[in-house]
Protein 1
Amino acid sequence: MKKTFLLCSLMAISLFSYAQTLDANVLQELRTGFVKDSRDVALQNVLTGDANITKNAKNREVAGKTDHFFKYRVPVKGITNQYSSGRCWMFTSLNVLRPEAREMLQTDAFAFSHNYLYFWDMLEKSNLFLENIIATAHKDMDDREVTVFFSSPVADGGVWNLFYNLAEKYGVVPEQVMPESEHSKNTRQMVSILNERLRGGGYALREMAAKGVREKELREEKTTVLKDIYRVLVLCLGEPPAEFSYRYKNKQGETVTLQTTPLEFYKSLVKSDYTPADYIMIMNDPTRAYYRVYEIKNYRNTLEGINWVYLNLPNDQIKQAALASIKDNEPMYTSCDVGKQMDREAGILDVNNYDYESLLGITLSMDKKARILTRQSGSAHAMLLIACDTDENDVPVKWEFENSWGQASGNKGYLTFTDTWFDEYMFRFVIHKKYLSPEAVKALSSKPILLPVWDYMF
C-alpha cells in the first residue's frame, strides 16, 4: 500500500515537473507557427467585423440538397410553442397524446395545457429537493451529492419519466382550462426566486438538523417553505383546478361539454399499456455497454415517482425500431443535441451544414463517445419523431421532428435531419417494446446499473 502511494506521488511530481508555462519560448513558437498569408488577412477582416462564425461557415454545397418529403409519416397536426422555457420534454410528451385526444373528442382543434403540468412539476421538484436536503443533512456541505442538490434545486428541464410521474398523479387538462401565463412562457425570473427560497430553506433545514432538531420539526419547517413555493406558483401561474368543465365543437359542428377531473381525463386518453413496463426509454450512449439497462439516481420530480431508466442500444437497432413505430403510425418522444449543425432557417440538421474547419483552418474531430465524455455534446432538447424517408432498399436517409418552437421556426415548425446526423446527435427515444428486437427485449430483464446524481447524462 505504501509503495503504491509512493509511486503515485512520484508520478504526480514527475508530471508536474514537466508542466509547461506560457513562457517567452512557447509564445515565440506559437507566433511563428501562424504564418499569415493573404487568405488569412481576408478571413481576419471578415471575422473581426462579423461575430457570426456559423453564418460564415455555412457550407453552400449542401444547401438545398435535403428536402422535406417523406415516404412514411405519422398523421400529426399543429405546432406548439414552449416560448422561453425548458419544458420541451413536457411539450413532446403531451404531443404524443394529442392525436389520441383529438380522436377521442372528435375535434381537430385541441391542445393540452402545459401550464397545468408545469405548476405541479415545480411544486413536486421543490418537495423532492427539500427531502433530499433532509436525507443528506448528516453529510458535509461540500459533499458531491449535496453540492449537486444545491446547485439547482428546481429547473424546467426533464425527460419522459417526469411527465409520466406527473400525469399519473395529477392528470392533464385542455389548454383553455389553464392557459399559459407570462411566467410559464418566460420562466427564468420565477425559477430564480423559487431557487433562492429553496436554497435558504434547505440551508435552514441543515442548520436545524445539525442542532439535533427532531424529524417532526424538520417536516414542519419543510411545509413552511413549500407554502411559500405554492404561493409564488399560484401568483405567477394560476391555481390548477381539481375538476373542470370543457366546452368545444366537434367535427360535426356540435357544441359538447365535458365535465371531469384532470386524472379522469388523462386515464380516458391513454392505453392500458401506457406504462414504463411497455413504453421503454432507449438510448444511444456509446460511452457505456450496449444491451444493458441504466438508472440515474434521483432523476425524477416526485418523491414516489420513477427515476430515469434507459436501455442502451446501438444506432442500427434504434433505427429499425423507430422506423417500425413510424410505419405503425405511432410517434415517439425523442431527444437530441439539436444545436449541432442546425440550419434553423431551412429547418435542416445535417453534419455537413457548417464547415468550421475550412473557415478557421483547424481540426475538429471527436467521435460521439469523446464528445459525450468531454461534455462537448449531450441531449439538449426533446421533440416528437414523426417521419422517415428511405431509399429503394427501405434504408433510412432522413427523418423528421415535430418541434415545439412555434410555426416560425424551421420548416413551419418541423425539422428534417439526415441519417448521418441521427448517428452523431440522437440520444433518447420512448418506444413501445413491441418494436424492439428480441435481443433488446431480453436485455430489459437485467437489473439496472445505478448511476450517480452527478452522471454526465443527468
Protein 2
Amino acid sequence: MGVTGTLAAMSVRDDHTEAFLDAIADADPYPYWYDDRDEPDSNPTLVRTESCDLCVVGGGYTGLWTAIVAKERDPKRDVVLIEAHEIGSAASGRNGGFMESSLTHGVMNGHQRWPEELATLEELGLNNLNEIEAAIQRYRIDCDYERTGVIDVATTDHPPSYVEELREEYQLLRNLNQRVEWLDEAAMRAQVNSPTYVGGVWRKDRAALVDPARLAWGLKSAAMSLGVRIYEDTKATSIEKDGVGVLVTTPLGRVRAGKVALATNAFKPLLRRIGHYVAPVYDYCMVTEPLSNAQRASIGWANRQGLSDIPNQFHYYRLTEDNRVLWGGYDVVYFWRGKVNTELESRPATWAKLSKHFFTTFPQLEGVKFSHVWGGVIDTCSRFSVFWGQAMQGRVAYAVGYTGLGVASSRFGGEVMVDLLDGRRSTATLTRFVKDKPLPFPPEPFRFAGIQATRWSLDREDRTGRRNAWLRTLDRMGLGFDS
C-alpha cells in the first residue's frame, strides 16, 4: 500500500512536480526499521498484582536504560518495566538513528543556556556515548552501530547568516578541544556531493549512527538478561502513594513498588505537572530504495557521516546499512490540544515536501524512489533538552523533554533518574542542567496559537535571515520551539 490515493488529490503538476511526487507514490507508510526479521516476540500483559523495588513506566530508550542501569548498580534490586504497547513501538523505534553525545540539543543551545557548565556537560555527554558503545559490545546488541560522526551543513537555500552561525559553532567546539574539522565548499562537496552545499562542520568522534529499532530490541534483551520483568500491552493508568511506596494501576493488574521511574516521553503523563512543560509534536521521515553503485558514486559519502542542515526548519539524513538514504525533519507539527494518535503519523503533504527538498539537495539521484514513509510523536520542551523532577516525597522520578535528540541522551536521562531515586550525589545531579526545569508552555488556546506563531516566524527567518519581534521576545524569555 502506498500514498498514491492522497497524492492524486494534489492538483496542477508540472513535470518536475510529477517527478518528486512519483518518487513517493508507491512508498509503504510504515517505518523502515520495522521491516526486520529480528523483531522479538512480545512479552505478556500484566494481569495480576506484582511487587518490586523499582517500577519503570515506559519501554522506550529512557525506560530500558533506567532498568538496565538500576540492575547493573544493584543486581539484587527487583525491577519491573511496563509498556503500554510494544517495546520500541514509539519514538525509540522509528527515529533517524542519530546517536549524538550532546545532552543539550547541540553545543550552541548549551552555550546559550548553561555557559558555565558547558565543558562539564560536554564531558558527561561524551562519557555517556562511550558507555552506550560499551553496553552495545557487552550485551552483543546487533544494531548496525557506526561511530562516523556527523556534519552540520550550510547550504545555498538559506541566508548567509547561517554560515556565520556555523563558524561560531566550529570555534566554540575548538575552544572545547573537540575533534572537529571545518569544511569549506570544496571540502564539503568532497565528503558528500550536493550543489547546495557551501560549508560544513564535521564533528568527528561525538556521534554515531544506529538502527534504532534493533537497538531498542537489544536493550530489551539486555534488561531481561539482568532479571528485569517486562510486561507489554500494559498501560499505566494512574499512580498513587501506597504506604511507604507507590501503587501503579493498569487495566488488568497493579504494581506495588518502592520507587517509580516515569519514562513516558510525549504521551499523556501520569503526573499532571509534567504536561505544563512538554508539548507532543510530530516529525516525519522517509527512506529511499537501496542506491546502486553508480548512484552512490554520484554523491560520494564514503565516510558515511550523519548530516543535518542548520536552519530553524532543518533536515537530517544518513545512509542505512544497506545504502538507502534516510531523509527526515523540516516540518514539526503540533496538533490542537496536543492530540496524539496513530492517524497523525500519516501526513502525505509533508512527505511530498520532503521529497521535493531531497531532489533539490541531490538532483543527481533523480529517478530514485522512496520505499518507506512514516511519522512519529516526540516530546519537546522550551529548552529543547531533557529535564527531570521528583514527586511523592522522592519516590517517583521522571525524565522527559528530549526534543528529538534522545537516542543517546536517554541513557543519561535514565541514569540521572536512578541517581535521584537512590539519593545519590553525582557530578550530573549537582548541575543546574539537572536541577532546573524549562519554562512551561502556556495553557490552551494560547499554547496552540503561540506554537503556530513561532513556526511561522521561524520559517520567515529561514527565508529572509531576519529574526522578528516575536522570536526576539521568546529569546529574552528563554522560550523556544524545536524538533
